[in-house]
Amino acid sequence: KKKKKKKKKKKKKKKKKKKKKKKKKKKKKKKKKKKKRKKKKKK
């Protein structure tokens, strides 16, 4: 009796997709201007 040889199946490798990172925009803070109070002069 002759033995039959089994054929091995080759597995296909899947390619992984690279994800792009999004850059976050920094918000600029506005500086508030202080108003100077005028002093009243006493006569």
From TrEMBL:
The entry's keywords: Coiled coil
Protein name per its UniProtKB record: Uncharacterized protein
Q: Where is this region: Disordered?
A: 1-43
Spell out the coiled coil positions from the record. Answer: 1-43
- Organism, by scientific name, is Glycine max
